[in-house]
Amino acid sequence: MNAAAKYVVIAQNVIASIEKGHLQANSKLPSLRHFCKLHDISMTTALTCYRYLEQRGYVVAEYKKGYFVLPLKTEQGIKHFPIFQSTVTKNLIKLELQTDLISKPSLATAQLDAELIDDTLIKRSFRSITKQTELSLQYDEIQGNKALRWQLSNYFKKQGFMCHHDDLVVTHGCLDAVLIALECVSKPGDVIAVTSPCYSGLLNVLGVLDRAILEIPSTNEGIELGQLEQAMKRKEITACLLTANHQNPTGHSLSNQQKQLLIKLANQYSIPLIEDDVFRELSHQQTIPLPLKYFDQQGWVIWCSSVSKTLAPGLRLGWCLPGRFKNEFIQQRMIRSLGHNQPIQLALADYIANGYYETHVKRVNRAISAQCSDYVKFLKNNLPEQAEIFVPSGGLVLWVKIPNVNTQQLAVKLAKQGVYIKPGNLFSTTKLYQDCVRLNIGLIPSKAIYSQLELLCQLVHIEKNVL
Q1: Is Cell cycle among this UniProt entry's keywords (predicted)?
Q2: Which residue in 392, 161, 196 sits closest to 289, CA to CA?
């Protein structure tokens, strides 16, 4: 048997083991040297076999660590999003934020498990930058430390997304970037288009800034572009605030075709698109998707993101590509603060430069993808049959529809027992999602987590029987 045929046969055997569950998701495959001995093959044949598996989405390579099994892809559970006619909502209700819960890991907060935060290498980068001559305790550039902007630019180029470091502005996280962007392109009373459902944090920001909103229905392919275009054409909206990749709370993404159509509409009607892209790099697939900004040639997209979800929320660092609004954005940045914490910026630059961040993102994505499968499996086995689970393409959240259950009342009852979830009513000004719930899947499944999920499922069954 020739080498070409042999690696395919061996690879098919590995695939069979993965699909039968003999090789678990996230498990490490034998080293290339050991794989050669196991199958009595050359290093070239072994490497070709592993690359064959990687190209077909069964394994992923991590630099200097080896090859790991990826979770098998699952089908999305929700067949249809609610269909409705968009209407403008003014005077958004300003919710009282539960500040005591923000710092506590729970099923309600979209954040990584503490064990998935790369403490060791982040601290190494902090120690490293204290020895650098570049470190000073003077004011840094308002636009952000040049070393960090250069490293971010170089890192994005590896993803096929070209952006010049002089076009980037460093912010205090993604939400900070979004807030500044909104103040650059709109004023109190202006109408901002958002997808429905929409991340509750964005609705809170819009409420605080006294902006009105127009909720555009979501579809399985992305968003209802027909209604959005009509709103642009009638000049009903001033700007759009959208998430194109792994949207919060549903986890779904826009196709590249929809992204291009959105850019076309923005150009045609001169409407700014503020892109909240904080979950883009947390892909459960093998490929990290492209942002809306990638397709933007005229500068109408204001791209916002951060490392809060991918690396560590405590760093409080994000960035923005403001496009044609760069000068206004930097002016707004200057009004708020005279720059950022330089040591943290230099530490993140060092972390990226050493390849730690790229490796970390791959490791986290493997873990989150596997965790997502575990959460979905448990919920499917324990929730009523009518429950629908939207299996996300990426991100840290799971959107679940539980017919005939008021999830706001469910959340209150769970909170009394120390279990916290985000009910669907928080993600819309409509009443369309009162039977939905968003769950954090960033927490590693444990006995304590499964106990919380079990209590949730038990109360769901009780609530259904009451109705």
Answers
A1: no
A2: 161
pLDDT score of 265 more than 60: yes
Domain ranges of the chain: 3-69, 88-105+114-357, 363-466
Burial class (CB in 10 A: 0-12, 13-18, 19+), 333: buried
3-state secondary structure of 452: helix
Query: Per residue in 37-84, pLDDT tens?
Result: 888 889 888 888 887 787 667 888 887 788 888 877 654 445 578 888
Give the pLDDT of residue 342: 85
Whose structure tokens read 């999920």?
A: 453
Q: Pairing mode, if any, of strands 436-440 and 422-423?
A: antiparallel
Amino acid letter for position 452: Q
| Residue whose C-alpha is closest to residue 209's, from 248, 247, 233, 175 | 175
Find the angle CA(422)-CA(427)-CA(429) to the nearest 5 degrees: 135
Q: Are 67 and 53 in contact (CB under 8 A)?
A: yes
| Alpha helices per DSSP H over 81-224 | 99-102, 119-129, 146-158, 174-185, 200-208
Chain Cα centroid distance, residue 330: 25
Number of Cβ within a 10 Å radius of residue 419: 20
Fold adopted by 88-105+114-357: Aspartate Aminotransferase; domain 2 (3.40.640)
Distances (CA, A) of 138 to 20, 50, 125, 134, 210: 59, 50, 20, 11, 36
Digit-coded pLDDT (tens) for 156-181: 998 888 999 999 999 999 999 999 99
Q: At the top level of CATH, which class does the domain 363-466 belong to?
A: alpha beta
Give me the DSSP letters along 293-313. Answer: GGG-SSS-EEEEEESTTTT-G
What stretch of H or E contains 423?
A: strand 422-423
- Enter the tokens of residue 165: 């470091």
Check residue 174 and report its DSSP letter.
H
Q: What is the CATH number of domain 3-69?
A: 1.10.10.10
